[in-house]
Amino acid sequence: MRIHIYAALLIFMIASTAYAQTDFQSYMPYRSFADSPFKNNHYLYFYLEDFEDGKLNTPGVSVNQGSLVIGDLGYKSRFVDSVDADDGRLDESGLQGHSLWSKNNFSLVFVFNEQVLSKLPTHVGMVWSDAPNSPMVSLVAFDSKGEPIGRTSALNPGDNVKTGTVMEDCFFGVYYEEGISKVIINNHLPDFEIDHLQYGLESPCRECSQETTYLKQ
User: What is the C-alpha separation between 152 and 103, in angstroms, rounded?
Assistant: First the structure.
């Protein structure tokens, strides 16, 4: 049984390793999918949700009520912190893209539907992109029985700027070969944003894998 916890941070990390050995990778800042540690793996399925159509609608995943996709120069647009490249260019700004805003929630809970996906994903990750002030951010993953399989945390990842800066954008992810049913990203305070939710099922062989799928409906 292999478990890898990924945290794309060049800052101090705290990991709870009571469940299994953990491995960390640093990819900060995360400016496009090219910075994802998942990009070169082989999958039976893989979905990247960048929220650029204003919705969370990739197959087999749901999020807790109260969150809101923001962008399109609409509600809270001056505070949008999308991944840098989502507006079509690397310009050190996330203001012209979309992100998922937690609104009044301290946590975003992503649940994966095994019936829709056929099998639970082995890889799940996302980019924490902004919060007004965040002493700690953590990601917790759960197995098919709802038992926690690991946690990774970061101290003080933000830059305390709410106007689309991207240099603090950090990838959090987990790999668990027996399948992940749920992940929770926790922020010490509400009103934070995430982007580039990505999840996939690792292929047992290169020949039967599919190309990484980008879904921008």
Answer: 23
